């Protein structure tokens, strides 16, 4: 491993006079999570009713967990045999948990600083990356990673890269130093950290990737950008800095695309995490005041009236990560604290509810699938409160009409069950389309989903792609495209021409397809796979090495 330069930051806090008493927020109720953890938590994510926590701990609820564990609402459980190093970030795509940090083994499987947990087993993401990962962000089925690394998937990728489910790719020439935070909105990827070059351009610890180029974001910050949250067209940035844009003071600020704005009087210390829920921003870090009110390491900023409020008596140590658990209407916090609220022993992870913000809908997934001349949008929620439904919004590239409402799907009102939704946008012409959901409550309040993009270019011919990975052990992925509907057969043969397995044998509509081939029962050697239709046949070779 290459030597890393570790920058030690010493924050000086100004304490208020003793006559400035602590304000208790009666809207907040704290809940501990069993016996908590044995040491610091650095990352948290929620999938359905389960909370996944990662960090630098050996025990969770008194059982050996090795840096990653799951809380199901009543008890802690392990994810296989865990990881052999620290966890810095956790992300969810579908039903899979992606975990990143600085480790080389996940459940006994060799990996390089990032791995996937599918609910029962660990697996590597290709060749992974060659150094520490500090942050993850999700857009559709794409996973973005940032950190110290200079290679991803065996190729050059300077501090930031994308995993598309099959392979790694760089974002241009990348960034010249540490990336601590990533957030994605449509085609735009915002990266924060401590760096001064992005894609060859001069920047100040904050930059934007638009799919082709890196650019500066309003002059950046004069320190380290540790947290980024995107709300609509606004970008909120917090960290270890005192100035944004060269002239606006603060440790947290809002970028509206053309200018920086303060968040009232801000906070008096470092910001490590930002999470939006409805009209509120929850901010965690290492500070003792927010908006000149006592606020121990966690506070809430109301975006509608620009006011700060504490989260009860806060936490006794830094709040490094936060996530929403819709099934319980709660916020989950993780960090380096022992106690929360009024001396509640939590041990590095805790849950609280905020009666002023009941967290009405938790969106678990939102995906798009192209099929012939239509796009199928699907999404699911783990819980809903007062949910009237969803407006489906579409933006067409190179169209001056902006976001257009194309449909509405009724919600389930109030429920704690997992619910699934489907909407089809049909009769589409070739083009690039973006979609988002506008969730509407019965009281008129609104929230928006992340944006997903579909490059609807249509399938112009039969194609059979080379399997990946190749060579492989024991499974590999085969992709193919059909320009029109037909009877499709995808078959695997050995070198003697004997049929090993038929992967597909049915009529399929035009579109793009992905098939996983599991060869765990086969011996090492050369095999062939063939795609056949009434008018097309193509064969490719694959190599199994055990």
In brief, what are we looking at here?
The chain has 546 residues and is mainly β.
Q: Can you offer a commentary on this structure?
A:
The protein has 546 residues and is mainly beta. Among the domains are: 361-456, Immunoglobulin-like, CATH 2.60.40.2060; 463-544, Macroglobulin (MG2) domain (Immunoglobulin-like). It has no helices and 56 strands. Strands 43, 44, 45, 46, 47, 48 and 49 form a 7-stranded antiparallel beta sheet that branches. Strand 14 and strand 15 form a beta hairpin. The relative contact order is 0.09. Residues 1-24 have low confidence and may be disordered.
Mean pLDDT: 88
Low-confidence stretches: 1-24
What's the alpha carbon Rg, rounded to whole Å? 24 Å
How many strand units? 56
So what's the oligomer here? single chain
- Helix/strand-derived category reads mainly beta
Largest sheet: 7 strands, antiparallel
| Overall CATH class of one domain | Mainly Beta
Kindly estimate the percentage of residues that lie in beta strands according to DSSP: over 45%
Task: Supply the number of helical segments.
Answer: 0
Shape: globular
Distance between the termini: 28 Å
CATH topology of one domain: Immunoglobulin-like
Helix content, binned percent: under 10%
**Shape-level CATH architecture of one domain:** Sandwich
